[in-house]
Specification:
Layout (H helix, E strand, L loop, with lengths): L27 E2 L13 E9 L9 E2 L4 E2 L5 H14 L3 E5 L8 H9 L9 H7 L5 E2 L10 H7 L29 E3 L10 E11 L5 E13 L4 H4 L1 H4 L3 E3 L2 H14 L4 E6 L16 H7 L5 E4 L5 E2 L13 E2 L4 E2 L2 E6 L5 E12 L4 E4 L5 E6 L14 H18 L2 E5 L3 E2 L12 H18 L8 E3 L16 E2 L2 E4 H5 L8 E8 H11 L14 E2 L27 E5 L18 E6 L2 E2 L5 E7 H5 L2 H5 L6 E9 H12 L1 E2 L1 H4 L5 E3 L8 E5 L4 H6 L5 E5 L13 E5 L4
Parallel strand pairs: 2-5, 5-6, 9-11, 11-12, 12-16, 20-32, 22-30, 26-34, 27-33
Antiparallel strand pairs: 1-8, 2-17, 3-4, 7-10, 8-9, 13-16, 14-15, 15-16, 17-18, 17-19, 20-24, 21-23, 25-30, 25-31, 27-28, 28-29, 34-36, 35-36
């Protein structure tokens, strides 16, 4: 059996917060202190195994398309874990957060049919089959609120708005969850334990080939991104505070060492940004490894990237990030992608120091790798599924399939985002209408001080072809199920926010959105790509993803986008152009001082303000609703029942400023889908090349379209 640290002190896991589970294959709980010590020349091997950003991808399944998706899922990562345990004599398995949210499985248990306090989260049931040793909280652990988080952790969170008695300690994760930089304002202490010192029995070899076992103490410190206070402000404001990741590591690593840890690992739910340290930065991995001594390894996540990345174009190439050795500033480091697509492995060679009576790392023999579930030369071949994980999720899996297949309405038109950046509003208008109605009703009933202000709404094509040529919203005409309606709003963790803005700020908002487009030179005879995107266009400068391309679809708003102008610089207007022209409200030039309410989501209202309004600026948020945008859309469709193109999918608020170009302006989208553009009235779109031949994508599955900007 696993054994708790010897006392329930800070740095250990209090007894009521820890579910004791079965022994972990080779790295077992400590035995007696009378165990014989290894000889000075003893050595051992320890593999630190990491999953990160699982996002409730327990199964290799896409519930909205109701079909298998073998390229994701813990059911396949589990196979890699079991293989690693056969390969290495001692292993320690950790999870790096963003675990409980992301697929409809998580939403079902949190919102559709909420878990009873006596039930264990199904994701934790699946993880229990693998006997994790420790984990940390990601930012998405907070999406469903603190009461829910406390319940699924087994109760015990001492924070305002939470009954710590709700939850059953034997129905928690089954492994310690540690996070040091989220503090309860009620107690002034970390919301969960900041770290744990795991006591394990290490199997080692001596020079004569004999085997010996001896205790080892492993400190595990958890750190999450401080951005939770922005992204889930409505749930956390006034209840918790966050602290800087680097400074938190500097505070606790020496403490863990003083308490006897042989090894110290940091579980950072964050990635790496080496562009300059900033307090409370989102991705501080580079500066933790650079500025905090005493760390034997760091596992990272949040960014859904891979490190080390030994491909031709690795994600992290700055000084100090060694993709060959798998180190950052000399510290072994790993980031294992997301959604169960990979397992991070840091293999340590350990030596017994007979003088100090502790284990130390043989740094010259440390190896780091990311093992993917893809196997063999065929990119569509994956490791086998793990039956234990599949069985653990079976009941929820079937309930969820039935839920997403249930009908809620109908539509007489196809709602599609393939040409949303060219003006097709079919996948956007219903979302905007739902958000606008929801906010307008609330303002009328609860915010009389704003009742006279017009309410508008923005949304974006969240699925804009980045993943593949089928990575678009595509809801066919006819019966609308939960799955179909949910496809209109990708992110189930977004919640409604309403912000008060001026006409001038609406223009800034649209100028920011116009960063989605490259600057087009009318005189160039060469082909030019319209989108600033490494997958569906050509990236120029900082890529601007489709999910940030906000669009109004109200007949009250009209404007032009002039893509011949340079991108607007909100912090220094003299350094850029102005792309938004002829901005009007109800047919008249918009009054820069007029005030509006704009319905959006919590991420846009909080995190996007500096990019839209300028560095250091914030939106005036008049309502941070607890209601998920997706649920608002689902409820709107249920209430409307029948959607028709003329009133729900034909509004177009903008057009490109007309210009004749000497060369072709190209736009890459779904294969053979010109009819979608034509149905949306986009007569200026034609097929340029039926197949993109893998340009920018590594596949040949997109069609390249020509956009005539003179029409």
């Amino acid at each position: 059996m696993f054994r708790e640290p010897s006392s329930a002190r800070r740095g250990g896991i209090a007894p009521h917060k820890l579910l004791l589970i079965g022994a972990l294959l080779a790295l077992t709980a400590c035995g007696s202190d009378d165990d014989p010590a290894p000889t000075p020349d003893a050595s051992a091997e320890l593999a630190l195994l990491e999953t990160t950003d699982l996002h409730y991808y327990a199964r290799s399944y896409n519930y909205y398309s109701d079909k298998a998706d073998d390229g994701v899922g813990l059911e396949r990562t589990a196979t890699l874990i079991r293989q690693a345990r056969q390969e290495f004599g001692n292993t320690l398995l950790v999870d790096n957060g963003d675990t409980i949210q992301g697929t409809v499985l998580g939403s079902y248990e949190a919102q559709v049919q909420p878990l009873a306090p006596t039930e264990q989260l199904t994701m934790y049931k699946a993880m229990a089959t693998l006997k994790y040793d420790a984990g940390t909280l990601g930012n998405h652990e907070f999406n469903f609120g603190l009461p829910y988080l406390s319940q699924i952790l087994g109760g015990g969170l001492e924070v305002d708005g939470v009954d710590p008695k709700v939850g059953s300690k034997d129905k928690g994760p089954g492994f310690p969850i540690v996070t040091a930089n989220v503090t309860s304002l009620k107690t002034g202490k970390p919301l969960v334990e900041p770290y744990v010192i795991l006591e394990r029995q290490l199997t080692a070899k001596q020079a004569d080939g004999t085997t010996v076992t001896h205790p080892i103490k492993i400190g595990v410190l958890g750190i999450t991104t401080p951005g939770i206070l922005n992204w889930d402000k409505d749930k956390l404001d006034g209840k918790v505070s966050t602290q800087d990741g680097r400074d938190t590591a500097a505070k606790y690593v020496p403490e863990i060492r003083r308490k006897g840890a042989d090894l110290v690992f940091v579980l950072l739910h964050g990635g790496m940004n080496a562009g300059g340290y900033a307090a409370n930065m989102e991705n501080p991995g580079y500066y933790i490894t650079k500025d905090v001594p005493g760390i034997d390894g760091i596992v990272m996540g949040h960014e859904h990237n891979t490190f080390p990345d030994r491909s031709a174009k690795p994600a992290y190439t700055f000084e100090g990030a060694d993709n060959t050795k798998g180190t950052v500033n000399g510290v072994p480091a790993v980031m294992a992608s997301s959604w169960g697509k990979a397992l991070g492995v840091i293999k340590y060679a350990l030596k017994w120091d007979g003088t100090a009576h502790k284990w130390s790392v043989d740094t010259g023999n440390t190896a780091v790798e990311v093992r993917t579930i893809q196997t063999g030369s065929n990119p569509s071949t994956y490791v086998a599924s793990d039956s234990a994980v599949v069985e653990a999720v079976a009941t929820l899996h079937e309930k969820t399939r039935a839920y997403v297949a249930s009908p809620i309405g109908s539509s007489d038109f196809r709602m599609n985002s393939m040409f949303a950046e060219l003006g097709d509003s079919t996948a956007l208008q219903v979302v905007n209408q739902a958000q606008q109605e929801h906010v307008a009703n609330y303002v009328k009933k609860n915010l009389p001080q704003y009742a006279a202000l017009p309410v508008l709404s923005v949304t974006a094509p969240f699925k804009a072809g980045y993943g593949s040529s089928t990575d678009y919203t595509d809801v066919k005409a006819g019966s609308l199920t939960v799955a179909a309606a949910a496809d209109l709003y990708l992110y189930d963790n977004n919640t409604i926010n309403a912000v008060k803005v001026t006409g001038a700020q609406i223009k800034l908002w649209l100028e920011n959105a116009a960063g989605r487009f490259n600057r087009i030179d009318p005189a160039k005879t060469e082909d030019q790509w319209l989108l600033n995107d490494s997958k569906t266009g050509v990236q120029t400068g900082s890529s601007f993803p489709g999910y940030n391309y906000d669009v109004f679809t109200s007949p009250d708003i009209s404007y032009e986008i002039d893509v011949t102008q340079a991108r607007y610089n909100v912090n220094d207007p003299s350094q850029g152009g102005e792309r938004i022209k002829n901005l009007r409200y109800k047919g008249q030039p918009i009054d820069a001082a007029q005030e509006f309410i704009v319905a959006t989501n919590n991420y846009r209202a909080n995190s996007s303000a500096p990019y839209i309004l300028g560095t250091g600026k914030k939106f005036d948020i008049v309502w941070a609703a607890p209601d998920a945008n997706r649920e608002v859309v689902l409820n709107y469709v249920k209430a409307r029942q029948n959607l028709v193109r003329t009133s729900d999918g034909a509004a177009r608020s903008w057009q490109f400023t007309k210009v004749t170009t000497a060369g072709n302006v190209l736009f890459k989208s779904g294969k053979g889908e010109l009819a979608v553009a034509q149905a949306a009235g986009l007569a200026n779109v034609s097929v340029y090349r039926a197949d993109d031949n893998g340009v920018n994508s590594g596949t040949g599955s997109y069609t390249v379209y020509r956009v005539d900007l003179s029409q």
